[in-house]
Amino acid sequence: MKIGVPKEIKQDEYRVAITPAGVREMLEHGHEVYVESAAGEGSAISDLEYEAQGATVLADAAAVFEVAEMILHVKELQAAEIEMLQPHHLLFTYLHLAPDPEQTRALCASGATCVAYETVEDSAGRLPLLAPMSEIAGRIATQAGAFMLEKPMGGRGILLGGTPGVAAANVVVIGGGVVGTNAAFIAMGMAADVFILDRSIDRLRELDLHYAREASTVYSTSLAVEELLPKADLVIGAVLVHGARAPFVIKREQLGLMKPGAVLVDVAIDQGGCFETSRPTTHRDPVFEVDGIIHYCVANMPGAVPVTATHSLTNATLPYALSLADHGLGGAVHRDPGLRPGINVANGVVTHQGVAEGVGADFVPPEEALGWS
C-alpha cells in the first residue's frame, strides 16, 4: 500500500504522523511511504532521516495526496486538505467529530473512509490510540494551570505547592481516566492538595490505593463539584465519553462560586469542552477570562511537546497502521474488531453512533456503508 504523510498545517501543530522508525517498519512490510518535505521539522526529524529509512520525500501536500492510498495524519484535516481527499483514500488520524458538524459534512462529501484514532478500542474497551496523547495532555494541563495561576498571566498569584508555612493550592481534577490520573500525578508532584472526582467507585478505589491517600478521591455529583469550587485554585476538566460530545460538568452560573483568578483547564475541548464557558484556544493565545475565571482551552495540548508526542503517538498507532496497510480495512477489522468503532465516516455517511448523535446525522453501521457481508 502507498502511505502518505502530509505536514500538519493546523496552527501551532508541530507533530508528525510517523517517525523514521515507523517508515522502516512500513517498508519491511512491503509498503511505500511518501512524506511531505519538512513534515518532521517541528518534531526535530529531517527529510534526510526519512529518506535514510526508505521514504520518498515529496514537495507538497498535493503530491502526497495524489499518490497515497492511506493518509496518516495527527490532527483533523484542515479545509484545504479535505479538498484533496478522494473517495479511494483511507484517512487515519484524530478526528473528534462529535462537536464538529462542519468537518463531518466535509468528510462525508469527500467520499473517503475515515478512521479516528480516538475511537479505536482494545479488547477491554479502552482507547489505546487516545491514551498516549491523553497522558501528555494531562501532564501539560497541570503545568499550564500552574503557570496561568501566576499573577502576570491573570491568575490568583498562587504557587501550586505553597511554601513552608503557606498552604498549597487546591487542585480539583474532574475525571479519573488517563487524563485525570496524569494531571493528578503532576499536581501531587508539585505538592498541591489534590481532589480527584469520578463516577466509578471501582476507579476511585483504584486511585485511592494507587496514590496511597496522597490525593483525596470524591464521587462526582453536581453537589460535590459545587462544594469543591469555592476552595479550588485550579480545576482540570478530564471528562470523556467515547466518541461523543463531552458533558458540561461546570455551568456558567457556578463560576460565581470560585475565587477570582482561579483557573479552569479544559482537556475535553477537542470533544466540545466540559465547561459551559469553554471555547477552543491556541498555544499562541491560550487563555480567556469569563466572570473573573481564567480559561485554558488549547485544543492540541500535546502539540506543544512534539518531540515527545510524535514518538509516543507512533509507538501506539504503528501496529494499527501496519495492519490496515497489510490487510486493508476489512481484513484489519476482521483481525482486530476494536478497529470497527474507529470507523467514523465511510462512503458519504456517518458510521459511529456517538458522532451521529453529536452532529445530528443519521447513523449507518460501517458494514452497511462499506458493503461488507
What distinguishing features does this structure have?
single chain; 373 residues; alpha/beta; Rossmann fold; 2 domains; 7-stranded mixed sheet; 12 helices; 15 strands
Question: Mind explaining what this structure looks like?
Answer:
- With 373 residues, the protein is of the alpha/beta class.
- It is 34% helix and 16% strand.
- The model has no long low-confidence stretch (mean pLDDT 96).
- α6 crosses α7.
- 53% of the residues are buried.
- The protein folds into 2 domains: 2-127 and 305-370, NAD(P)-binding Rossmann-like Domain (Rossmann fold, 3-Layer(aba) Sandwich); 135-304, Rossmann fold.
- α4 (79-82) links the parallel β4 (70-72) and β5.
- It has an 8-stranded mixed beta sheet, sandwiched between helices.
- The radius of gyration is 21 Å and the shape is globular.
- The two termini are 24 Å apart.
- It has helices spanning 20-28, 47-52, 61-67, 79-82, 101-110, 131-148, 178-189, 201-210, 222-228, 306-335, 353-359, 366-370; strands spanning 2-5, 32-36, 56-58, 70-72, 90-93, 113-116, 170-174, 193-198, 216-219, 234-237, 263-266, 287-290, 293-296, 343-346, 349-350.
Number of helices: 12
Q: What oligomeric state do these chains adopt?
A: single chain
Sequence of secondary-structure elements:
EHEHEHEHEHEHEHEHEHEEEEHEEHH
At the fourth level of CATH, the homologous superfamily of the largest domain is NAD(P)-binding Rossmann-like Domain
Strand ordering within the main sheet: 3-2-1-4-5-6-14-15
Q: Give the C-level CATH assignment of the largest domain.
A: Alpha Beta
In CATH terms, what is the fold-level topology of the largest domain? Rossmann fold
The beta-strand count equals 15
What portion of the residues fall into strands of 2 or more residues? 15-25%
